[in-house]
Amino acid sequence: MKILILSRNAQLYSTSRLLEAARERGHDAAVVDYLRCYMNIAASRPQVMFGGKPLIKVDAVIPRIGATHTFYGTAVVRQFEVMDVYPLNQSEAITRSRDKLRSLQLLSRKGIGLPVTALAHSTKDVTGVIETVGGAPLVVKLLEGTQGIGVVLCETTKAAESVMEAFRGLDAQILAQEFIKEASGVDIRCLVIGNKVVAAMKREAGQDEFRSNLHRGGKATKVKITPQERSTAVRAAKTMGLRVAGVDLLRSNHGPLVLEVNSSPGLEGIEGATNIDVAGKIIEHIEKNVSLPSA
């Protein structure tokens, strides 16, 4: 099988592990920078070009699309879809999951647990937004933020008003979200492949930090999740339409709450914490779902 990994950097842990796993299983695999791809959008013979040559006879693509390049990256994935190439995650599902507001609205519609969240456009409505999420302390998030960037814990109502007004003054779109005190700076990352959680880790925030992101000093350890947490993670990934997803959960007094659904989850932290060959399981999923032409 010919598998292309769409990634900007072949040296990244997740990219190199996927490449290694595919080759170990006997596949013809390569890494292609999706920003260097260009497309021939034709009715008779659509193509994706790279280095002046068409990428042909591709059986599957693994999108590792960075948040800052979602528009062009998903356009490349969509072109492969037009060519009947199997995408690990479909372009529409990636786009859906990257829109924080839309993803929360879709999860809410399915009755999946979420922290109470509010959104407003006008700074005149800041007080109502704060009251909606239960008052201070609360979390303010930039809609365009990733990896913990643009996430602020506001300890007081005055601080929340100042942060929200400052962000809106820069014309930034923001969410206000209930602060789950009982989570104590800990979240759960569930790695979902298909209809199954294949690995889970607990991420604990570093000292003087409430965000548990590993690159911010967070610590990752293997964790045993409950049936309810497992079900919530699978349902969240399915709601986004993602075949592979990293689902971040908080443990609250009223059950698991979904923080985010990631369409390009990193593999280094979860493989290191669990000793599970997640990359191999992803390739195995592709093998089971790609129909190859008969010899």
Task: Outline the fold blueprint.
Elements: E1 2-6, H1 13-24, E2 28-32, E3 38-40, E4 47-50, E5 53-54, E6 60-63, H2 70-82, E7 86-87, H3 91-98, H4 100-109, E8 117-118, H5 126-132, E9 138-142, E10 151-154, H6 157-169, E11 174-178, E12 186-193, E13 196-204, E14 219-222, H7 227-240, E15 244-252, E16 255-262, H8 268-274, H9 278-289
Helix pairs in contact: 1-9, 2-3
Structure notes:
The protein has helices at 13-24, 70-82, 91-98, 100-109, 126-132, 157-169, 227-240, 268-274, 278-289; strands spanning 2-6, 28-32, 38-40, 47-50, 53-54, 60-63, 86-87, 117-118, 138-142, 151-154, 174-178, 186-193, 196-204, 219-222, 244-252, 255-262. The protein has three domains: 2-88, Rossmann fold; 97-113 and 182-263, D-amino Acid Aminotransferase, Chain A, domain 1 (2-Layer Sandwich), CATH 3.30.470; 117-179, Dna Ligase, domain 1 (2-Layer Sandwich), CATH 3.30.1490.20. Helix 1 (13-24) packs across helix 9 (278-289) and helix 2 packs antiparallel against helix 3 (91-98). It is α+β, with helices and mostly antiparallel strands and 295 residues long. It contains nine helices and 16 strands. A hairpin with a 6-residue loop joins strand 3 (38-40) and strand 4 (47-50). The two termini are 12 Å apart. The strands form four sheets. Strands 14-13-12-15-16 form a five-stranded antiparallel β-sheet, sandwiched between helices. The protein has a four-stranded parallel β-sheet with strand order 2-1-6-7, sandwiched between helices. The chain has a four-stranded antiparallel β-sheet with strand order 8-11-9-10, with helices on one face.
